[in-house]
Design brief:
EC number: 4.3.2.1
Helix content: 55-70%
CATH topology of the largest domain: Fumarase C, Chain A, domain 2
Structural class: mainly alpha
Protein name: Argininosuccinate lyase
Keywords: Amino-acid biosynthesis, Arginine biosynthesis, Cytoplasm, Lyase
Pathway: Amino-acid biosynthesis; L-arginine biosynthesis; L-arginine from L-ornithine and carbamoyl phosphate: step 3/3
Number of strands: 6
Distance between the termini: 44 Å
Largest sheet: 2 strands, antiparallel
Subcellular location: Cytoplasm
Bound molecules: arginine
Strand order of the largest sheet: 1-2
Length: about 475
Amino acid sequence: MKKLWQGRFSEESSQLLEEFNASIGFDRNLYKEDIEGSIAHATMLSECAIITKDESKTLVDGLKQVLSEIEDNKFEFKTEDEDIHMAVEKRLSEIIGSEIGGKLHTARSRNDQVALDFRLFVLKQNKELAKLVLNLISTLKTISSSNLDTLMPGYTHLQHAQPVSLAYHLMAYSFMFMRDFERFISSFERNNLCPLGSAALAGTPHAINREVTSSTLGFYAPTFNAMDSVSDRDFALEMLFNISVLFTHTSRLCEELILWSSQEFGFISISDKFSTGSSIMPQKKNPDVAELIRGKTGRVYGNLIALLTTMKSLPLAYNKDMQEDKEGVFDSLETAKTSLVILNEMLKTTKFNTDAMLKACKKGHLSATDLADYLVKQKNIPFREAHHITGRCVAVAESAGLDLSDVGLLHLQSVDERIDETALDALNLANSKEARKSYGGTANESVLKQIEVAQKFIENALKLKI
Ligand code: ARG
């Protein structure tokens, strides 16, 4: 088969090379961006009088025909065409003839073409992911709004620490996802520059106008240095990094959902719609969705490390190594999109067993810190001593087989006579939560402010019209 770059070769390519070298199997995903870029390029060439208006129209009409052939599944993708850029150009010349078809690639190289196509594609995906993350923020906010008074143990080292509200715990995830949202948007903003017109690596002697292509394609401006433009894959690395951080968050959330759905916790019941059974144990209900999202974190991190490693020692400018940039990004994007959608739906249908959460609060003396704080505040006892007295109260409660929040005054006074009745209020679990009114704390008034921040965040995000 005659290649578009055949001129200097006297021998045909080996079949082995054709298969090894081809990227059309996956870069066909970029067909829309490729054609969009070519249409903008052809239009600019005629505006700059490098080709005639008629030639430009013929090129654009032909490109539109190629687009509909692809979308109607009438386009034949062939390994010998190597990549989407050459496949589209070849078909274009078949349709309109190579006399005019051959002019499209004036002042352009596949190096700036692929940089453009991939960047356009990734930029759009930043917005898609931001939207899906926003849905998650909104779901967590909704569940939180109705669980301000739902008590649950707060943990450190996975040991019972202090009582918090479920709202407070879930809002912590909301804030993580707000940062993820911002990362996708800021990555879009930073990378929204057009590399087309950089040509192979050094620019072009043709009198092109990069501003025209840049604005036609919706970019803020052309990129500044042609060599950087064809060598740069930061936009893809950022996407892989942003998805990796997002998955750190979803994985932690899923880990908790898995724990919470266990017999030991029993804090949640995941809907049957999002649970699976066992082929042998009839009683089983497994949290596969949460486990899969936790598990997929591995491949998402892998894709990031793979591209970082591919890029790290490449001399400027384009090297074929860079063809390895796409599959990992496609994979991470697909993984992120499907995971975000199902996680959101699963959360919406998950039942929170508030009784079990409250019961768990009665184990582990969650309000012990409150007794120490009471001794400091009410009895002017230095915190270190208060800590020691409280420790002894915990030991008394333990030997009476009670949680500290349930012991009577006599027990407490047996440790220190200065303790009076108001200590019992301090030890009450709901009061303990409500006492933490400090900025960002778990008291309702503080969590309500957090919910308000999330609400404003969502409203502002919707104004971005992404
Ligand atoms: N298929 C190539 C890639 O994905 C397109 C760019 C090829 N450029 C070149 N000079 N061989 O990276």
